[in-house]
Design brief:
Elements: H1 2-25, H2 35-47, E1 53-54, H3 60-63, H4 71-79, H5 97-103, E2 107-108, E3 123-124, E4 137-138
Parallel strand pairs: 1-2
Antiparallel strand pairs: 3-4
Length: about 140
Amino acid sequence: MPEQIFHIRTLAWYVVFTFCVPAFLFAQVPVVHTEGEAEAFNDLLRDLEGISLELNRASAKALLILPGLTSELVQQIIARRPYRAIEDLADVQGLSAEHIDLIAPYLSIAPTRPWRSRYTSRISRPSNRANRFDDTRLY
């Protein structure tokens, strides 16, 4: 009988240290926002309406106006450029899916432009020798 009690106590301590202690250590304190903070956040979102920042070209200062982005997150975003889609932001450490959904309406990705070159040429020859090609010049 005493051996069974020992095993039950061991099991009980195992459960406490495995499930309960981490829950207390890593529990997040609920954030309570005042009415003024909520109003300021809504004003910020209203001010951002119609803005579309190009993710691969926007400066750090421009990205900082987006809600919830800190300077550390912005530096990580810039370091991981170029992005092919907004969903690639999930690779940035510290950005959750909810956060990406919040800032996604204000971001865009420009399509990649193919490499282009302009070539202009001009052929000239003196007008007094209209039928001769020995003085022809190519520019």
